[in-house]
């Protein structure tokens, strides 16, 4: 094995298939997105170069700022919900004395394997004006009634909840796998020192899941920024474009108005935002690791 690891040609040949797939299906299309965003193009005829015209129009469009706000609200809501509840549930079922842990492990993951369309139709039946939730309020003798998906100020939060509910199980599975990789000896030593279960998890589990949380943050925040399906099914971008995101702007411009240049300009901004989010997360965790290394070095010097 060492012989092959030291052979640069062998390494290149092993990496080449994956690299070729990445360049063909990821890198080149991203370059094309940026290139066509500077054109007036309907997707069929020859593109006409228009310089920054699409971007000037985009930044003067009020819907662009609404879309940006919505996608970041969406990303933050689903990230907080998913990581908070996924952590609580994962820690809870990690206790081997708990009854029904196998059933709960499956139950938490079931929404992930459901079709997004099925989940959206389910929650639409619950949250619509004459849906199950309002009927429950009525059955309880309350006059409270709300069209949860028809309120322009609340709809984005409701849609974010639907997404968070479905995909929390994915984060849960990742965190459960991370907890399983932590040696049991750490917890036994903590109990000997008199730590409660809560304190042991705060001092051992959470810090040692840093890399898992990093991955969860990246997929959750970037996934929120790219949100589209739930808006399309539940509200169609409404009411009055109040649940638009950049992805929905791209879809609306390219596939409904055949203005691919404008749609790809919105897509380019979205790609840049996703890259910035990943860079910020990597920077924060890198700084954290450097601080930990400096702290270890300081303790060694003092010892």
Q: Can you walk through the features of this model?
A:
The protein is mainly alpha-helical and 303 residues long. Helix content is 75%, strand content 1%. The protein is built from 14 helices and two strands, in the order H-H-E-E-H-H-H-H-H-H-H-H-H-H-H-H. Strands 1-2 form a two-stranded antiparallel ribbon. The longest helix is centred in the last third of the chain and has 43 residues, at 260-302. The two termini are 40 Å apart. The model has no long low-confidence stretch (mean pLDDT 89).
Draw up the topology in text.
Layout: H1 2-5, H2 8-36, E1 39-40, E2 48-49, H3 53-59, H4 62-93, H5 101-113, H6 116-127, H7 132-139, H8 155-180, H9 184-192, H10 197-208, H11 210-225, H12 229-234, H13 246-256, H14 260-302
Antiparallel strand pairs: 1-2
Helix pairs in contact: 2-14, 3-14, 4-8, 4-11, 5-8, 8-11, 9-10, 11-14, 13-14
What general form does the structure show? globular
Poorly predicted ranges: none
**Separation of the first and last Cα atoms:** 40 Å
Whole-angstrom Rg: 24 Å
Helix-strand string: HHEEHHHHHHHHHHHH
Tally of DSSP β-strands: 2
Short description:
Helices cover 75% and strands 1% of the residues. With 303 residues, it is mainly alpha-helical.
Features:
single chain; 303 residues; mainly alpha; two-stranded antiparallel sheet; 75% helix
């Amino acid at each position: 094995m060492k012989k092959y690891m030291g052979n640069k040609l062998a390494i290149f040949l092993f990496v080449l298939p994956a690299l070729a797939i990445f360049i063909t299906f990821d890198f080149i299309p991203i370059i094309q997105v940026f290139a066509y965003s500077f054109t007036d193009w309907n997707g069929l005829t020859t593109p006409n170069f228009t310089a920054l015209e699409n971007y000037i129009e985009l930044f003067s469009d009020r819907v662009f700022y609404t879309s940006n706000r919505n996608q970041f609200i969406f990303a933050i809501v689903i990230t907080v919900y998913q990581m908070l509840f996924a952590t609580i549930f994962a820690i809870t079922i990690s206790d081997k004395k708990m009854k029904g842990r196998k059933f709960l492990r499956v139950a938490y993951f079931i929404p992930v394997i459901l079709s997004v369309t099925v989940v959206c139709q389910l929650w639409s039946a619950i949250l619509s004006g004459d849906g199950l939730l309002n009927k429950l309020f009525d059955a309880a003798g309350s006059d409270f009634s709300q069209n949860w998906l028809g309120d322009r100020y609340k709809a984005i939060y409701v849609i974010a909840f639907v997404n968070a509910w479905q995909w929390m199980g994915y984060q849960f599975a990742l965190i459960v796998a991370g907890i399983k990789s932590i040696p049991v000896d750490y917890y036994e030593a903590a109990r000997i020192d008199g730590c409660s279960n809560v304190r042991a998890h705060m001092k051992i589990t959470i810090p040692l899941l840093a890399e898992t949380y990093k991955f969860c943050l990246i997929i959750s925040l970037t996934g929120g920024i790219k949100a589209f399906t739930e808006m399309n099914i539940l509200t169609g971008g409404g009411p009055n474009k109040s649940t638009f995101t950049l992805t929905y702007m791209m879809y609306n411009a390219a596939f409904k108005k055949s203005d691919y240049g404008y749609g790809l300009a919105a897509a380019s901004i979205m790609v840049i935002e996703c890259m910035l989010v990943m860079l910020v997360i990597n920077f924060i965790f890198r700084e954290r690791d450097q601080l930990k290394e400096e702290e270890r070095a300081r303790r060694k010097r003092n010892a």
